[in-house]
Amino acid sequence: MTQHLLIIGAASIDTKGRADQTIQVGTSTPGSIRVSVGGVGRNIAENLARLGEPVVLLSAVGDGGSGRRILQQAAECGIDTTHMLVDAEHHTAAYLAVLDHTGNAVMSIDDMTIGRAVITPQFVYQRRALFRDACMVVLDANLSTDTLNTIFNTARKYGVPVCADPTTASLAPRLCPHLPELTLVTPNAAEAEALCGVQVIDRESGLVAAQKLVSLGVKIAIVTLGATGLIYATSQESGHVPAIECEIVDFTGAGDALTAAVIFGLLNDFAIDEAVRLGARAAALTLQSRETVCPTLSLERLYDQLVI
């Protein structure tokens, strides 16, 4: 049996309102509102499943319509949800974003209480066999510090590499004790500063941050810079990949797509620079989608439009 990817993190319902014109505080702004499935861990899992990788998702949902929607959608795109927990005491995680007319998030609120309450060290330990049979563990920083400790300890026991998405600048510091054990980390500018203390404002400082993360033990550091593209670094090489020009519908989920595609590249023996370019293409496809994960994402689309 092919070894699976073990993804641990949030699964949520995303509600996103995009304004049709300049937002005015204190009054209603015309626009469109869309509800979709989301959560960083779940997003990464769906992207990888759409790229043909065997994925097991460890997460939790509430015992209601939102939870059932997440489980059904996951099954439809090929994610193994056998080991997820349906919890009657907490509601499904939720994310609410207000986007301006360009697709940028003006503000957002997340309610990820269920994950920190239910995805406990015991929850992870009881599923330790999933680590033994995994080729890689991928996590988001929505998890509690105790749970993160258990995940890294278990992965170390079974010799499984770990990749992480810092999720937000406020959550990123939870990963700091584990940087020497990370195969890949993919922060944006604010998250990179939270991880290594380097203020990122341009390509040059992005490179300094990526190299600082490598000096702290990370094998591959990718710092995303929005319209400027991204910087990547390893102990052997570094580089810049420009952003792909495209019509932007919604920024949500683009970083998760990048993380997933880079992981796909690493698993399939791509050179680092090729894996990073694959990630940039996946992010561009997601930016053009109204959904948090591009529903037409496939390996064929990435190959056809891969930036050389």
Name a few traits of the molecule.
308 residues; 4-stranded mixed beta sheet; 15 strands; 36% helix; 24% strand; globular
Topology summary:
Layout: E1 4-8, E2 12-19, E3 31-38, H1 40-50, E4 55-58, E5 60-62, H2 65-76, E6 79-80, E7 85-87, E8 93-99, E9 105-111, H3 113-118, H4 121-126, H5 129-132, E10 134-140, H6 145-158, E11 162-165, E12 182-185, H7 189-196, H8 203-215, E13 220-224, E14 230-233, E15 238-241, H9 254-267, H10 272-287, H11 299-304
Parallel strand pairs: 1-4, 1-10, 2-8, 4-6, 5-7, 10-11, 11-12, 12-13
Antiparallel strand pairs: 2-3, 8-9, 13-14, 14-15
Please give a structural write-up.
The chain has 308 residues and is of the alpha/beta class. It has 11 helices and 15 strands. Strands 6-4-1-10-11-12-13-14-15 form a 9-stranded mixed beta sheet, sandwiched between helices. Strands 3-2-8-9 form a 4-stranded mixed beta sheet. A two-stranded parallel sheet has the order 5-7. A hairpin with a 4-residue loop joins strand 14 (230-233) and strand 15 (238-241). Helix 1 (40-50) crosses helix 9 and helix 7 runs parallel beside helix 8. The two termini are 34 Å apart.
